[in-house]
User: What shape does this take?
Amino acid sequence: MPPGRICVAYMGRVRANPSAARALPYRTRTVKSRRDGRGWSGLDPVKARTLTSPDSAAMRPRRFGPVEPLRGTIRVPGDKSISHRALMLGALAVGTTRISGLLEGEDVLATASAMRAMGAQIERTGVGTWRVDGVGVGSLLQPQVALDMGNSGTSTRLLMGLVASHPISAMFTGDASLSGRPMGRVIEPLSRIGAVFSASPGGRLPLMLQGISPGVPIEYCLPVASAQVKSAVLLAGLNIRGTTTVIEPVATRDHSERMLAGFGADVTVERDAAGARIIRIAGEAELRPQTLEVPGDPSSAAFFIVAALIVPGSELTIENVGLNPTRAGLIAVLRAMGGSIHEINGREVGGEPVADLVVRHSALCGVEIDPAIAPSMIDEFPVLFVAAALAQGRTTTSGLDELRVKESDRLAAMAAALTHVGAQVEERADGLVIDGSGGEPLRGSGNAVVATPLDHRIAMSMAVAGLASSGGVEVDDTRPIATSFPTFEKLLEGLAG
Ligand code: S3P
Assistant: This one.
């Protein structure tokens, strides 16, 4: 077995290499933390927006009410996952990368700030167009400020991978939502590489990460289906001599693999006899700068797809939507529910399949959703629950434990929010069961506000629910929408006119 070869618990089975584990003690200390994300080790945080609590006086409530049919043509902003990766890989290439269609949401801007703090020059040259002058793999600089990740789990986990295999240290801080999310899932494999973490209780932010170079190449079997964990290990592998391997029993979004190959890294993907994906990356990579275009985000398009399906009389064209099969689960489920969604102008943008979608109002029916499809629509469940609440009959979901550790506990948040506006919802341990209204408008939230605990996707989902309600839905706080879809409200206003 090569040095550092490790496979950990997967679905209850433990396949470990104890000698490697001994060679690489998992050194995680718990530190006494200040939860306000400020004042760590005398470092000033990189400026990112930090929402401290959902009940702060600055909350921005808004009522979303019934609208005329949604008709016309729109474009949603660039894909969030791809935008993060484009900035990170551009910052690691030697030379100038030019990006168009970059999502200018707060999460992606947090990644840009962090990469700047580690030496890359990153400049906005126009709307969605950015220039990145990279430092080269192995040459990230010691940040002089704490890296404030705002609300962004993707920035945090992927950047932890990058820092882990560089001889630098970084303090990661975030908002109240991010500070409640588990980081143990990346701390664990990155500790095996040799990085050292001092985390807040429960393996959470704020945390201090001391990277290591040279790090140890590992073989890591993902215990949870997570593209963030996969990507953290692969990005760490870029600066580790030898081959770093990630085994992915359940496929997750593959943007990292695609983009790493596009930047010239030596990445291979195979399937084993059981169908698991085996992804290998050769270390000490030299990345070549690229000119790339980011396709529209299917996770943002999802809100308008569902809105057009549930608002009677709607016919909406959404241009330039990324349709990577590892992201397209929602469209398959909505079609199975009877949704009219047609793809036209299929093409490739930035190494990703893309099409324009024509969506027409449809009578939806409830379905039982196979948990195997969950990774390809993991961010779309909140809005799928809204579609289910308007469908005829029962929709059953299961196997969705991961939704409890997103920007909020999305099962609890959506069960409470939809119940509040008049939907029939049963919350189970790993999913929701929803008995739909058969197309009848939901009651709405009355005089009370619907809680969307610092979670952009809950806020946008409940806004969409408001469009198909009789009394309107008062969303408690629209600020988090800017993390992933800053133009959401404007686009909606433009359509609802
Ligand atoms: C993402 C992966 C997913 C997703 C998140 C973006 C990524 O998270 O929910 O919004 O860009 O890799 P997990 O890896 O936790 O499933």
Q: What stands out?
A: The domain at 80-293 is CATH 3.65.10.10 (UDP-n-acetylglucosamine1-carboxyvinyl-transferase; Chain). Residues 81, 154, 226-228, 231, 253, 378-379, 402 surround shikimate-3-phosphate (CB under 6 Å). The longest strand covers residues 340-349. The radius of gyration is 22 Å.
